[in-house]
Write a structure and sequence with these properties.
Two copies of one chain form a homodimer. Chain A is built from eleven helices and 18 strands. By secondary structure, chain A is an alpha/beta fold. In chain A, the strands form five sheets. Chain A has a seven-stranded mixed β-sheet. A four-stranded mixed β-sheet of chain A has the order 13-15-17-18, covered by helices on one side. The two termini of chain A are about 40 Å apart. The interface of A and B includes residues 304, 313, 321 and 337 of A. Strand 18 of chain A pairs parallel with strand 16 of chain B.
């Protein structure tokens, strides 16, 4: 347990990178992609519960996913499950959660933990969050960055600054966009950069002060909504105010501006983190058979002279003959095939389908 | 029309090379694989009708396929549609058809035309069959061989002999098994070999004489069955006698032995023949889109950065990203992926499924 810790799990995304498994209305956090029987969301909550208990853990999800989330998390108090009336990116969701936690406990330490990431070393994760909470206690917004293990071009990076004197915590100089390959390699070899996984810990009042400074409309809005929840009128006011709030990410809307004023710290983490970002990444996470092929929800995969594939199904059998490094997904109403090396381009497929007026497949 | 010509279409196969489209109970001749709306069987019959008319055209099919065949060929007299009680390879089916034709017309010229081949140049085909019928009139068993267009290792070959003086007809020295690549290349460059497509024309009495000589049990059996059909007791006797007949192909059981005695002639054909032998061959037959990809029964194929694939479906959409020369088949209850270069190995998939007790997928 961490005193006064109210972790927040935003579970509102509708990522397309695991299409055609994940869809607009079937986000990947609802699927058991971690090699266990539980969904990514359930796995995220299970990992946080030892730090907060169920009474302080908040989940913010889309109204469309509320029923599914409630079903997956029956032990969470219903009041801790907040439904967004519509998607407005991450800043409104996370700021509202901070306001709700603050209304319950003025010393609340809150933060944000994506619902669809995987972490292999839960103990290492807990240690990093404890350190982050300690750093946050001094008033800094804290990001838990990941020590890079490769020159990844798919993530943003955190340029670290001076040591803060609490374990390995440092100040944050600035946030960097997704780099090209040579820049990424330079970041990694410098030892001064961390992957930005969008994992945050902060005092609720410290975050709200930054929200008030940078996005005053958002501040007024989430305080009004939180107050309404406290007096039992939450959903009505939430529905009314929500559409007026700025649609912006917590990184761009708040954290970068705070970093520019020296108000952001970071704690390096090294706990087997992955965002299960695409089919190729999923292939690296799940247990492979002795040919290196990973199968997810495939009834009786038959793999002949084939290796290192990622196969996901809708229950039906899949048969591979003489193929390697291929992604094969039977999405139920659509079949998708691409090389693992093209897995990060799945978004272009979804876009092409939408452009062609075939949203029903996305 | 060809006088006394009774073409026979054996439609009993349960080929597995277009698995998972074709199955034990769904042979490929029932599917429209020729790029037209009609099935391969319908296309075969349409091609033969100008030579025989419907009253002389015989189709021998498996009892399991009888209803489907009847539905596809409503204009054929029911008496010309013969149901095999069980599969016994091609010699019994073709010998029985010859016996039936002979019982109707002692001067019958009959033969065999596979139900699942495609022919682009129907006029050239008709010319070759007319020549074959003329050669057959002299008492030879005649095979129509195809002038090879490549060093194909998937077919048997016919070694031709002396000219017979009727168009390009020649004697047949012998039949050769499927060769290795260098042997195939030598065959083709010699100019003396034809592909053996299993296409035959002969006088019914000449064939029956060879059957009597080489397989007397088969001769007695098919004559007994044909006599029973003539007196209206066909199916009962057919069911009774059929299981006693030798299970052998017409090539091995009759034609090769006849060739050894100099009783086989051949007519070279060059009329755009293909046996649609596997998915790769099918990809060469059907019309491709401008990326070289062929789609069969796919609702809304989306092909991004992909080329030269063969995609067959069960109506659902298929999406390809960044793949080439791939076979992707949505078989409804199973999804199958292999490179076009491995298409000839689909039989090993079917065998593996059967070995694993998964016959229901085959």
């Amino acid at each position: 347990m961490i005193d006064n810790f109210y972790p927040v799990v935003p579970a509102g995304g509708s990522g397309t990178r695991l299409w055609p498994l994940s869809r607009r209305n079937r986000p990947k956090f609802l699927f058991p992609l971690g090699g266990e029987d539980i969904s990514l969301l359930q796995s995220t909550v299970r990992r946080l519960l030892p730090l907060s208990g169920p009474d302080r853990l908040l989940v913010v999800t889309g109204a469309a996913h509320l029923a599914a989330v409630r079903e997956q998390l029956p032990d969470l108090p219903p009041v801790n499950l907040v439904a967004e009336p519509s998607p407005r990116n991450s800043a409104p969701a996370i700021a509202l959660a901070a306001a709700l936690a603050h209304s319950r406990n003025p010393d609340a330490i809150t933060g944000s933990f994506a619902a669809d990431h995987l972490i292999a070393d839960v103990r290492g994760f807990h240690d990093a969050i404890r350190t982050a909470a300690e750093v946050a206690g001094a008033g800094l917004l804290v990001t838990v960055g990941l020590s890079p293990t490769r020159a990844e071009t798919g993530y943003g990076y955190i340029k670290t600054g001076a040591a803060l004197g609490i374990d390995a915590a440092r100040t944050v100089d600035r946030f960097e966009e997704k780099p090209d390959r040579s820049t990424a390699a330079a970041y990694v070899s410098s030892g001064e950069y961390l992957w930005n996984a969008g994992m945050f810990v902060w005092r609720a009042d410290a975050l709200l002060a930054e929200v008030r400074r940078q996005l005053p409309d958002l501040y007024d809005g989430v305080l009004a909504i939180a107050a309404a929840y406290a007096r039992g009128e939450g959903p009505r006011v939430h529905d009314h105010v929500w559409p007026t709030l700025p649609k912006v990410s917590i990184d761009v809307g708040i954290v970068e501006g705070a970093a520019a004023r020296g108000r952001v710290g970071c704690v390096p983490g090294n706990f087997g983190w992955t965002d299960v970002g695409d089919w190729d990444a999923l292939g690296g996470v799940l247990a492979a058979d002795d040919t290196g092929t990973v199968a997810l929800n495939v009834e009786g995969l038959l793999s002949l002279d084939s290796a290192d594939c990622v196969v996901a199904g809708s229950g039906r059998p899949v048969v591979l003959l003489g193929v390697r490094d291929l992604v094969v997904v039977d999405g139920g109403d659509v079949v998708f095939v691409c090389p693992r090396a093209r897995a990060q381009d799945v978004g272009s497929v979804v876009q092409a389908l939408r452009d062609a007026g075939r949203e029903h497949l996305t």
